[in-house]
Amino acid sequence: MNIAFFVDEFPPFFRGGLGTYATEISRQLVSKGHSLSVFSRNRGNDPTSDTWSGVDVHRPRLMKFSDIFSIINPDEVKTWDDNGQEFFAETILYNMLSASKLVNNLVLKDNRHYDLLVSHDWLAALAGIIARRNLGIPFVFHFHSAEQGRNPAGSPTIKDIERLSATLADRIVTVSYAMQDELVSFGYPDHKIRVIHNGVDEKKYDATRFSSRQVEAFREKIGIGSSPMIFFIGRLTWVKGADTLVLAMTHILKEIPDARLVILGIGEMDQVLTRMVHDLHLEENVILHFRLVEEDERLLYYAASDVCVFPSKYEPFGIVCTEAMSMGKPVVVGARGTSGFREQVIPRGDGICGYHINPYDPLDIAEYVIDILRRPDLAVMMGKNGRNRVKEQFTWEIASEKTLEVYRELVDS
What we know:
This protein has 413 residues and is an alpha/beta fold. It has helices at residues 17-31, 66-72, 82-103, 125-135, 147-150, 156-168, 177-185, 212-221, 242-255, 270-279, 295-304, 319-326, 341-344, 362-374, 376-393, 396-411, and strands at 2-6, 35-39, 49-52, 55-58, 116-120, 139-143, 171-174, 193-195, 229-233, 260-264, 286-289, 307-310, 331-334, 354-357.
């Protein structure tokens, strides 16, 4: 198949889990003999065209058009701050230029035709819609999350874009059954929806790649030493729950005084977290790393940890959990509302690999973190079970095969 793939994040640009997904799934599709042209956002100095691991990547150079954007800007978006309006304008332009480049046959030089259009989330939805209208080929829309789920009082404009995409798409793909239920509750057509879990590279995310000496050296480097290490990685936004985890530390330390929490990520809550740590006198026990790290270093953070905690209040899937499980680490995860974590993590019985918690309750988080840290044999068993579960159900190989099944349904029909 020749596939046009519209996705906001693609190497070298990463913002979150979507970038990881796009990187890994595109690599898989190409390895299986399919041709992929990715259209991604240009941050300003990125090459407009190149090849990455066999994938043709197109990043149309964006222009400033703020002088005329007010004419076509939706009224609701006009209430956003200047940065938000600029981002929305750039997003519209990225979609228009990407669709134009595809529709005007400026991509494939040998007169090949595309079999399928694929867009990921609202940020790349309009390009798929425009291309579908002009080329008349099947269109698949991937929901990795939804505006109404992230924030019920969120942007009506983004909700409209998502609804139009779902209406015009020939198939809707989403990342968990929890997310499918959410989409159906919003009125999206059930018969169009297919569930495909995300995955992980289980060969890369393998703690046995690191020697005990490497792990010990890294723990010393980040200030953990021999203390029990609790690890959080993710965007620093309210929905991810890092602030509730900091509150949970006040209870954890009553039982395990030498415990250390490491928070790794960037986002708008960095100042809030810094203030919380200061006000709660947790400077000795909470280590804040406000940065993005390369994957090799991220693997070491996982390898160094004793338990990984992701108290998300809304999490359609959550690749970080899959990564932690693949690294053989016990996990404590939010399991309220729309939570793909519930489908990853078995909280009891022979296959137990972690615990489900109420992400709004610091005491609940603390109780289960303490239980794991006090019972090293249980932690080891959870880690082994989690890695086995990943290999059986949550690899990129499995995800790519299921994705191709959906794509073939359309192309072969």
